[in-house]
Predict the structure.
Amino acid sequence: MSAQPNFLHELVGSMSQGAAGNPTVAMIEAAFAHHGLHWRYVNMEVTPEDLGVAVRGAKAMGFRGFNCSLPHKVTVIPHLDGLGESAAVMGAVNCVVRRGDKLIGENTDGKGFLKSLTSATDPRGKAVVIFGAGGAARAIAVELGLAGIRQITVVNRSASRGADLVELLRDKLQLQAKLIVWDGDYVIPEGTDFVINATSIGLYDANARLALDVSSLKPGMIVADVIGNPPQTRLMRDAAERGCTALDGLGMLVNQGIVGVQYWTGIEPDATVMRRALEQALGL
Ligand code: NDP
């Protein structure tokens, strides 16, 4: 950074632990370079004990914002000046944005998903089945709720985690939500519009199988996967074969980056440039 002091206008960063080689760096910096922005996106290794001072340091040094990943998504909240709507509902932040002299926490995981989805359809009034109830499922379900879906079925292996998500969706968003404890191949009910895998099944394993009766995937359904590596998961292949619209997790990751860059810089970055940089960084 000190090599180019005259050209360096703004900084954003990523506060994480154990995320060396974070492919997001390549994707965000490709967007900055493509749009002629003299900005840098830097990866910073921050321990849980140092999170408070790191956030104060970023603020003191005029960072335009930063991403934060595990284990900081929840614990960063007390160190911020406020929260965006969906981050407040889900109680997790992965993107911090400087607005005036305040650091505001947003959650772009669900917004990235929503951007992928709205490129294919309007979510209002739709019926959704989501597998998983962890951080990604929570972010997606909350964003879908805010976008006006009609009902959601959470299918999760652990009943307690699933029940927590359903309760949050009912209490905070007044959403028609129910839990199915996942046991055996799940049959997607008739009338479902979107099917989403928000579990970690498929990560680094293109043949990993979701316990799902694939014959219940019908043409016209939109099937999405959060798994970005590899993007062509077994679910994505099954969905395409059955005439569904398949939305891969790499698209969601790129869109999440796009939303972050929009928040920080105000520009709409080029999605193709960012996806290419991400694919290269992931060796795809
Ligand atoms: P969490 O650990 O919070 O949640 C994992 C979820 O997967 C839980 O619901 C868990 O069920 C379920 N699960 C894991 N293994 C199995 C299994 N063998 N059988 C059934 N259920 C299983 O993780 P996150 O929600 O943070 O992340 C999930 C995935 O989403 C990760 O692979 C991550 O890489 C990806 N992701 C992608 C993003 C993108 O932009 N594309 C953004 C964020 C995340 P249980 O509750 O029973 O343990």
Summary: The first helix runs from residue 23 to 34. The chain has two domains: 10-106+252-282, 111-247. Residues 109, 112, 132-137, 156-158, 161, 199-201, 203, 226-228, 249, 252-253, 256 surround NDP (CB under 6 Å).
